[in-house]
TrEMBL record:
PANTHER family: 23S RRNA METHYLTRANSFERASE, RADICAL SAM SUPERFAMILY PROTEIN
Name used for this protein in its record: Radical SAM core domain-containing protein
Keywords for the protein's UniProt record, in alphabetical order: 4Fe-4S, Cytoplasm, Iron, Iron-sulfur, Metal-binding, Methyltransferase, rRNA processing, S-adenosyl-L-methionine, Transferase
UniProt source species: Digitaria exilis
NCBIfam families recorded: rRNA_mod_RlmN
Superkingdom of origin: Eukaryota
Gene Ontology biological process terms from the UniProt entry: rRNA base methylation; tRNA methylation
Amino acid sequence: MAAQALPFLRWSRSASTLRACSSSTATPHRLLSTLRRPAAAARCESGSKAMLKGMDFSELENWVRAQGFRPGQAMMLWKCLYGNNAWAHCHDELVGLNKDFRKMITERADLKALTVKDILTASDGTRKILFSLEDGPVIETVIIPCARGRTTVCVSSQVGCAMNCQFCFTGRMGLRKHLSTAEIVEQAVFARRLFSDEFGAITNVVFMGMGEPFHNIDNVIKASSIMVDDQGLHFSPRKVTVSTSGLVPQLKRFLHESNCSLAVSLNATTDEVRNWIMPINRKYNLNLLLGTLREELCLKKNYRVLFEYVMLSGVNDSMDDAKRLIELVQGIPCKINLISFNPHSGSQFKPTPDEKIIEFRNVLIQGGLTVFVRLSRGDDQMAACGQLGEPGDYQLPLLRVPEKFQVAL
Ligand code: SAH
Ligand code: SF4
């Protein structure tokens, strides 16, 4: 992502935390290039090779059996890929495997799905990893350390996004590509591999990077199930949160098939505003979205959806909006996350002033809701997640601004 896309964060390059397959004494600069080399090699090797990180455990077991080995050996391989601080990226790191088994894997499988292009450090310590995909495009993953011993990795699920939300930088790109299961899982593996020494355990995953996860639901459900496997990466399902703009059929499917957490980007309290700023609302309106959540969540125990609400000055931040929001979410077990809008070159919105956000929050609290606020600061983790991508020359057109909001912009 271009630095100018993130005026609120000062990024600098840093490779000090990189772990490479082959050298522990390399300088940071060397580490970065060393880290790139095995990936380049992996690119040449690929083709007909099996991509191990695209498989869940039962698929891996079947694959191991199909190669003529005992399925029992699959668990040892799984642990090399995901467990015991191994996070193997090259065949040399497949420690403890039988020699023939290792040789077979070297010949027939790839361990790594992404190539690190760059790592940027924000002034508040947040890191952004730029990964190149096999076929050229770049995706972004953000690592957000937190003083309370929680470190979050914000993963991407697509290159760009088709949803065209008017306030989102990624949305300007349009959809370029769905990420594979392996490419999604690999972002979490890299986060652990590169930053566990520095930040301690990477405890949380949020699907709030580039893309609409439910537009790529098969790969997202599979990747999140690999992330929570208790013999592997072992993230707590409560701490793996998939965020959606509100694709209702996929949301239902997710609630039935996955035990991970759900966040819904609400961002408006009327269909009029939501139809404009989140065009997906024209297909799945507020009534349908919230009605579905109300029905589905009463079937789940101890489960609360997180509603995200980006505060846009003069658009969705009136006290009437706050009161409507209280009404809208009645009967839905939920928490609300008020997010300060981060201006960028691709949007004409303005952020709500901090005092007004607090006022809005207070109305919600008085209405009995649980509310968190993320004010617009350089270390605002969600803001960084909503600002990823590089639209380049081709950008989706912005929609016509309804007359009554023209003055707000
Ligand atoms: N596509 C998914 C997840 C990625 S966006 C979704 O929309 O939920 C992650 C979050 O960033 C969403 O809640 C979105 O509303 C928010 N966001 C997008 N652009 C933003 C911006 N410019 N400032 C602040 N938050 C933004
Ligand atoms: Fe896509 Fe989410 Fe951005 Fe909307 S907010 S364009 S759904 S990434």
